[in-house]
Each structure stands twice: as structure tokens, then as C-alpha cells.
Request: fold
Amino acid sequence: MIHKEGRRISIMLFIILAILDIAIILFTGPLLVQVPVIIASLLLWLFILRFFRDPKRKAPVEGFVYAPADGRVVVIENTTESEYFKDERIQVSVFMSVWNVHINWYPVQGNLSYYQYHPGKYLIANHPKSSTLNERNTLVIKTADGTEYLIRQIAGAVARRIISYATTGKSVKLGDEMGFIRFGSRVDIFLPVGTEILVKPGQQVRGLITPLAKS
Reply:
């Protein structure tokens, strides 16, 4: 299935490519010109359909902090979180390439105690400073036991739009969609110091399937 964020783009691109292909067939003679262009346009449209795919995943059991997105773990380190907590936290970052599913899911359930959008740059998303310099959304989920987890959606060099479904005070369930980032990006999670981390740098993870840590 195609995610709702990609339906309009997919339809518009199909119409544009169809018009282009028809024009090429009508106004160019050699098949050596027509065939490669038509094949390229078809591959482009299939790529867009694949990018906006919407796999339906069941909400996992509680007790863990799950990966909020598909991708590769690029950071696991203790760092100072300066926007909200202003203290030391464990940062786990997942980088999404253009080949990954780009839906973001809530990794735990609770209430959104904080939400803030930040305009910024478009550094490569795996750049160390992208977490604080790039365009980003920051949200904090407070669970039933009072633990707070900060999640940050970060735009990258190609990703130019972060779509978020978060609002302060909203109650969210584990497995609900948090948002969508277009065309390559990163999601950071900041956990309390002492949290048991269950993944390693370089590991491929899948949203709602791979547990990042024990909650």
C-alpha cells in the first residue's frame, strides 16, 4: 500500500511521466531514444511507489523502547541533551537511506509533554552536528511511570520536509505513526543514563520490530 503522504505525489508524477512518454513517442522517431526514456520514467515511478510504501506492523509488547524507524544505528553514546533535559542522556540515532521505509512510529506510549519545530540547515543526516543544526522536530513522551524519552526527527541533505503528527498533550500509543520524513533522514532518541541498550552501532533495525532498549 502507498502511504497517505505519497499518494498525491505518486499520482502527479504518473501524469507528468505519462505526458512526457507520449510526447516522446509522438515526436521522436528512433526507438533508441524512446525506449530508454520510457524505461527510465517507469523506474522512477516505481522508485517513488517503493519509497512511500506503507507496511502494516502490529504494535509490539510493552517493556521495550522500539526503533522508531527502519534504518541503521549510527550513534550510541552518552551526550548532553541541551534543549529539554539539559543533562546527560544516552543518545541512539537511526539513519534512514532512501531505500528504507520512511514512516516514523512512536517507540513507547504515553503523553506528549513537549513538542517543538526548529528550522535549520540541511547537513548530511549522519553528520554529528545535524542533531542540533538541521531542520528538526523535537518531542518528548512521558510514560505512565514518569519516565521521559526525547525523540528528534532530523532532515538531511536530500530530505527537505519533516511531517509530524505530534501535538503537545496528545496521548500516543506504542505503534501509532509519529510522522514521515521525505527522502533520507535520521531519528534520534535520548534515554535516561543507565538504560540497558540492546543494539550496536552499524546494526540494521526495523521500526516497531527491533527493540533498542529496555524501558
